Amino acid sequence: xxxxEVAHTFATIADMLAIRGxxxxxxxxxxxxxxxxxxxxxxxxxxxxxxxxxDIPGIGQTLADKIKEMLTTGHLTFYDKLAQxxxxxxxxxLRVDGIGPKRARQLYETLGITNLDELxxxxxxxxxxxxxxxxxxxxxxxxxxxxxxxxHGDERxxxxxxxxxxxxxxxxxxxxxxxxxxxxxxxxxxMRETVHDIDLLIAAADAAPIMDAFVSLPxxxxxxxxxxTKSSVTLVNGLxxxxxxxxxxxxxxxxxxxxxxxxxxxxxxxxxxKQGLSLNEYGFxxxxxxxxxxxxxxxxxxxxxxxxxxxPTLREDRGExxxxxxxxxxxxxxxxxxxxxxxxxxxxxxxxxxxxxxATAAKARGxxxxxxxxxxxxxxxxxxxxxxxxxxxxxxxxxANEALGPDFRILHGTEMEIKADGALDYPDExxxxxxxxxxxLHVSLKQPREQATQRILNAIHNPHVDMIAHPTGRLxxxxxxxxxxxxxxxxxxxxxxxxxxVNANPHRLDLKDIYARRAMELGVKIAINTDAHNADQFDLLxxxxxxxxxxxxxxxxxxxxxxxxxxxxxxQEKPKNLTRR
Length: 581
Ligand SMILES: [Zn+2]
Ligand SMILES: [Zn+2]
Hints:
The protein is α/β, with parallel strands linked by helices. The chain folds into 4 domains: 3-152, Orthogonal Bundle (DNA polymerase, domain 1), CATH 1.10.150; 157-246, Beta Polymerase, domain 2 (2-Layer Sandwich), CATH 3.30.460; 252-325, 2-Layer Sandwich (Beta Polymerase, domain 3), CATH 3.30.210.10; 335-580, TIM Barrel, CATH 3.20.20.140. It is built from 23 helices and 16 strands. Helix 16 (355-364) links the parallel strand 10 (340-341) and strand 11 (369-375). Helix 12 packs across helix 14 (298-304). 44% of the residues are buried. Bound molecules: zinc ion (ZN) (2 copies). The site of one zinc ion has 5 residues, from loops.
């Protein structure tokens, strides 16, 4: 079995346990394990062979034993037994909007429905409306859910597509009189790289006019629910959007609840219960009949639990609760700490603006220094620069530096191809003339792991290469990442002092969060860059910062939060690091 198959088995078990009505923690443990295996940077077979399964976050001895059983026998006794009680195909029902685990079990126990086809038939035959707690309305909703699923699937869409849509809708709703607070919640607020739906929250005394405006937004294709505090719509692109409206004095718990993650919230509810409080989106309710505790801010809600404020990007139950309880939350990088951008393109290659225009735009956004890093010769489609043109560009950069004065500095750089055979696109003597050298994979991304990994290692071991950009080359939802041994790459980056990029373009977000976190553990420095090809793309920076926060990156480890002198000193160390090895 491979990583995907092991992850799929665990995810199915999580759903089967939820349908059976098991303890939520048990189901969550399997769900977390599935995600950890899915996100694992190594072949799970190798990890098992090295006896290191329990090093994977969320994998204890019990789950490690189950993985070993799957890897050696190709199946899992626990799964087979569970499947006799809960047919695995029943899990498919959960993909339909409006069907949760309880409803799935009800449909199975009362009507013998075991899969989506049978569900569709029963709904069309009008059999669902007869069930307890159902009716013609719920039946119609389920039929609609099945139709939506057939039409749009239930894929997650890239954050970069969901985010602007959410902001657009929110801006329209924010203008309605009586609205005091607005927020995008859910996984988008946590800056997960893909989202399944959008959660919008609004604080206002009167919800009705806001709901009216929401369901008639131009982006809306169909309305699947409209209530006093919650409405749901499907957009023309298939994305589901939920809006909830509550009074401002409940804003803190509302925001907390719908930001998630589910796993984080479960932990918070446990802490609340220890104090005799139950926590939901409306507030804290004491078990002993004392009055309800309302929180207007998330800070107050965390305070009630005896915790410091935890940033949304950390709320994944990946150790943040323990860290908060022991006063060890990382002081993660904030966007206002970023003083430079070390990866961008001009009209010299495939960008839109001149060197001076890009520099002026970056300066206007508060940058103290930047690197201009156009493509190298062999990337023909991006008009990569020949050595001759690269040297001509140096003169332009000198002129632009003169024009912009002493408070701003343009570094002359390159985004150099690591060619398919692993060779670098410029010779060393040319690289030595540059201030900042990026090496990247753009071609032959489908090479076998060993070969693709070796190409990056070649670049890392060159004394002139300062940074590896968007290491895996993935485009979220479009192009899979190159198959890389990321552990070996990050260790080499740590040893040599090579910077790894967290590319802020929301279609890349590469390094992704879990690798950024691993980079931090190994002492690798990262840079958060926009890879801008036009001035407006500087605005993508916050996606990179969010991803770095999800990786628990702190300012000391983010080189573009450093003053220029500190960065230049760091870059000078690399050749020495290499000879020391
Ligand atoms: Zn690139
Ligand atoms: Zn680039």
